[in-house]
């Protein structure tokens, strides 16, 4: 059930990865792994020896107790890491790569997520301070004294290296949007090994700059990675655009060679609390051990973390029952078994995350765009979505209602109170009434048709001809039980108002080829698509949830929604304060660029009572194994 969080600090006082369905846990951009669940587990245990062991280990050098024990973490089906280079590509844009691997090895300049709340965690950030000047146009940043695992200092040259690679390869960065970072940067100046300055093309809001622009930056080991081949010498190739392209191409190609992750010398140079110990490419199993040179404030006490993949929720469930997993998840289909685990040494904690959930609409399909462009049609469709009932009957109580673009289940100042109220409550009569008042002949259990064409009061709207039927194609992701049930429920309600929703079950891969803006993604044969079951995660590029990464002009997920008010509202959040964000929310929640649906937990976590420090679970999907500890 929904559990409120503690109050978050106001913006400025101190997020988009692909997510999978909470039932089958299949991510939209991932293919199934080759091995079978418990076979993977057995392979992982055989490769790494005893697991889950308590006790202590003595350092030969110091004689003091060192990290001890092994923690086994279940990876969601089909989600094993397969890209290790921190400047990930669009195909690798999901949190198992970033949060469960890359961020553990290479720390970003700014760390977001504070005890399960949105916000900047200064203690875990590599930036010691950020001072704005020139009205907020310039940011001067001082680094903390971190070291790479090979002994080199982390310096501003490492930040410049990262910036040069982003600037020269921005089209490959999935979160890039025209006019944003790095397009809006006019200069990047190194002042000293520990201080640098970034100047932007105009004055922006400081919260937006810090949370959504400067957060792109991650120090990368220039002294080890600035090369174009493994055998070539390290130089300064990144200082020219063509050289930066070659370096990025080389590092990306190395990252695609998953079989070499644990042997490639590139990936051994880290500044995070962990280093990669082993990786089994055929299965996706990986293990991490502490980085003894880590300079951060929280040092690992666990000797090894094992991330163990499974090909199905059933296989993972069986491993949990066998006691072979310390930190796993309970599939929705097995929620009735929760009491078994609470009586056998585990506790269950839903992993709530910073997300909104929606059904995307296509505003560019030449056959139906005139219909989808009518606000009253979208309002009618929203009236047919019964979020409270879906949470109660389909999600077993594990859901939060979405009524706007900013998550409302996090206690913070970012979401306006109105986001907790349904502007279009479930009502088949209300949906039918809207259509009648706008010139439609409503036929419950049949198909409505336009009786009064035209753009005046009481008419269907421009571009909708007499006799046009209200028949729409609704795609949903195959194999996801809760999505199937929700889509069927919406179809049944729509039929009561005379709206025909033609359901089509489509694979995640097929949805990706169909999704987008016509005619860029032919054939344009869909009107609604539920391809983000569970929610859209505000993360690495939208820590401050201004919507630019979703509904900015030309964004992949906008469905072609192109209204000047949207662009103006988003732009205002980039320069204005909290009031501008609230105005944006108030507009989007009722403009309905999408249809709002319930958010589900990232997972229903099952955590061993011997494992401490896991909760509160991070709202962005990150894990903090350096803060975990084992008891006997």
Features:
single chain, about 625 residues, alpha+beta, D-Maltodextrin-Binding Protein, domain 2, Dipeptide-binding Protein, domain 1, Dipeptide-binding Protein, domain 3, 3 domains, six-stranded mixed sheet, four-stranded mixed sheet, disordered N terminus
Task: Give the helix/strand layout.
Blueprint: H1 37-48, E1 57-58, E2 65-66, E3 70-75, H2 95-105, E4 112-114, E5 117-120, E6 127-133, E7 138-143, H3 156-168, E8 185-192, E9 195-200, H4 206-213, H5 222-225, H6 241-255, E10 274-280, E11 285-290, E12 304-309, H7 313-321, E13 327-329, H8 338-342, E14 346-351, E15 355-361, H9 369-372, H10 375-383, H11 387-393, H12 428-437, E16 440-441, E17 449-450, E18 471-477, H13 481-496, E19 500-506, H14 508-514, E20 528-530, E21 536-537, H15 548-551, H16 564-575, H17 578-591, E22 594-597, E23 603-608, E24 611-612, E25 629-630
Parallel strand pairs: 3-12, 18-19, 18-20
Antiparallel strand pairs: 1-2, 4-5, 6-7, 7-9, 8-9, 10-11, 11-12, 13-23, 14-23, 15-20, 15-21, 15-22, 16-17, 24-25
Helix pairs in contact: 3-6, 10-12, 16-17
Structure description:
The protein is of the alpha+beta class. The protein folds into three domains: 37-82 and 272-352 and 603-630, D-Maltodextrin-Binding Protein, domain 2; 112-244, Alpha-Beta Complex (Dipeptide-binding Protein, domain 1), CATH 3.90.76.10; 355-597, Dipeptide-binding Protein, domain 3. It contains 17 helices and 25 strands. The strands form eight sheets. Strands 15, 18, 19, 20, 21 and 22 form a six-stranded mixed sheet that branches. The protein has a four-stranded mixed sheet with strand order 3-12-11-10, with helices on both faces. A hairpin with a 2-residue loop joins strand 4 (112-114) and strand 5. Helix 3 (156-168) crosses helix 6 (241-255) and helix 16 (564-575) packs antiparallel against helix 17. It is globular, with a radius of gyration of 25 Å. It starts with 36 loop residues before the first helix and ends with a strand. The model is unreliable at 1-64 (pLDDT under 50).
């Amino acid at each position: 059930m929904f559990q409120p969080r503690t109050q978050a600090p106001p913006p400025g006082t101190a997020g988009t990865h692909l997510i999978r369905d909470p039932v089958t846990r299949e991510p939209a951009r991932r293919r199934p792994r080759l091995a079978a669940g418990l076979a993977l587990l057995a392979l992982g245990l055989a490769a790494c020896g005893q697991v889950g062991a308590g006790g202590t280990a003595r350092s030969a050098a110091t004689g003091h107790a060192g990290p001890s024990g092994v923690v086994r973490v279940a990876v969601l089906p089909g989600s094993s890491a397969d890209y290790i280079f921190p400047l990930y590509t669009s195909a690798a844009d999901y949190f198992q790569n970033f949060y469960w691997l890359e961020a553990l090895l290479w720390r970003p300049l700014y760390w977001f997520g504070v005890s399960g709340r949105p916000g900047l965690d200064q203690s875990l950030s590599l930036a010691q301070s950020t001072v704005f000047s020139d009205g907020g146009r310039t940011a001067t940043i001082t680094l903390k004294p971190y070291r790479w695992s090979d002994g080199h200092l982390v310096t501003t040259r490492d930040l410049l290296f990262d910036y040069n690679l982003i600037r020269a390869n921005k089209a490959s960065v999935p979160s890039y949007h025209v006019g944003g970072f790095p397009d809006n940067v006019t200069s990047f100046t190194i002042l000293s090994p520990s201080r640098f300055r970034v100047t932007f093309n105009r004055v922006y809001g400081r919260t937006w700059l810090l949370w959504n622009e400067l957060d792109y930056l991650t120090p990368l080991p220039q002294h080890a990675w600035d090369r174009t081949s493994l055998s070539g010498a390290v130089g300064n190739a990144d200082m020219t655009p063509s050289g930066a392209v070659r370096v990025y191409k080389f590092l990306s190609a190395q990252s695609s060679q998953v079989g070499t992750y644990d042997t490639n010398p590139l990936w051994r140079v880290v500044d995070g609390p962990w280093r990669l110990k082993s990786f089994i490419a055929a299965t996706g199993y990986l293990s991490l051990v502490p980085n003894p040179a880590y300079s951060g404030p929280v040092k690992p006490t666990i000797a090894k973390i094992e991330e163990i993949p499974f090909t199905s929720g059933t296989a993972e469930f069986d491993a949990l029952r066998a006691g072979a997993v310390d930190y796993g998840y309970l599939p929705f289909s097995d929620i009735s078994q929760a009491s078994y685990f609470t009586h056998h040494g585990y506790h269950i904690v839903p992993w709530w995350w910073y997300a909104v959930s929606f059904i995307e609409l296509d505003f560019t399909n030449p056959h139906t765009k005139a219909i989808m462009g009518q606000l009253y049609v979208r309002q009618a469709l929203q009236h047919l979505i019964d979020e409270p009932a879906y949470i109660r009957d389909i999600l077993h109580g594990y859901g939060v209602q979405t009524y706007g673009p900013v998550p409302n289940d996090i206690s913070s100042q970012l979401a306006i109170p109105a986001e907790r109220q349904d502007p279009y409550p479930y009502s088949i009569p209300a949906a039918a009434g809207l259509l009648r008042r706008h010139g439609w002949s409503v036929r419950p259990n049949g198909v409505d048709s336009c009786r009064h064409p035209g753009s005046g009061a009481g008419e269907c709207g421009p571009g909708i001809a007499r006799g046009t039927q209200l028949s729409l194609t609704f795609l949903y992701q195959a194999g996801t039980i809760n999505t199937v049930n929700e889509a069927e429920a919406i179809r049944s309600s729509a039929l009561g108002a005379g709206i025909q929703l033609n359901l089509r079950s489509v694979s995640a891969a097929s949805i990706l080829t169909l999704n987008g803006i016509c005619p860029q993604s032919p054939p344009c044969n869909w009107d609604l698509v539920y391809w983000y079951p569970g929610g859209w995660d505000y993360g690495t590029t939208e820590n401050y949830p201004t919507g630019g990464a979703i509904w900015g002009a030309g964004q992949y997920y906008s469905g072609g929604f192109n209204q000047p008010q949207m662009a103006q509202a988003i732009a205002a959040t980039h320069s204005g304060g909290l009031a501008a964000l609230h105005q944006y929310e108030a507009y989007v929640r009722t403009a309905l660029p999408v249809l709002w649906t319930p958010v589900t937990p990232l997972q229903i976590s099952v955590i061993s009572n011997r494992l401490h420090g896991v909760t509160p679970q991070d709202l962005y999907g990150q894990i903090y194994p350096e803060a975990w500890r084992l008891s006997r």
